[in-house]
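Give me the fold.
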Amino acid sequence: MYHVLMRLQRKLTASLLILFVVLFMPFVVVRAPRGSMVSLSDATPTNVAIIFGAGLKRDGTPSDALMDRLRVAAELYRLKKVKRILVSGDNRFEGYSEPDAMKTALIDVLNVPSDVVRVDYAGRRTYDTCIRAHELWGVDRAILVSQDFHLPRAIWTCRRLGIESVGVSASLQPYILGSWYRTRERLARYKAFIDVYLWRPDYIGGAFIEDLDTVVFDEKSAVVPPWQYIRTASWVSSPSNLPGWGVGWAQSGS
């Protein structure tokens, strides 16, 4: 009887240990390294800021959370912390385009020069935005801009996919769905853990677009024409012919 009880105890202990690993490992692993979340003023200058989509209002303009991300990105540019802003988001429905809304807001509302903004239409979620930024846009180092509840996962994911990342928070106000976002983010960490370590998900790939890590400024801080730094064989005359100018699928930041 004693030996039976000991075997049951060992099985129970092993089961509890497995349950603990399953429940808590993503929260232990999927987190931002110490010092990787910085303020605007403390951010080390780099070439690229990556902005993740976060939904649109009914009129097609950025949601409050997304607009705050764009405000921070514009400020990074004004402070000369970044030279290019890569916006990446959902474009799967007709009449719904996060990337276009982000680009319009940056240029028309926040007065960021149009040649600073690059648009990625297939950032259906955080994983896709990070891997496409690295593989199609040549980004090896970036400042990520998102709300504080999303940044740890975004930083962790981008780093695992080849981008040395730091994050600047765009949590500039309380959000109506703030509690829901935080709860959803806890669940999303499980998916991030699975995506990176267990199941590499499909994403919309394509030909290399542009090496954003080679952007330079001349002595007068004018932007050198970007086609001088395209790593593909030749410049395409129409932006609509560029890979990445097509249709994406789902919401970035998810």
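Residues 16-21, 217-254 have pLDDT under 50 and may be disordered.
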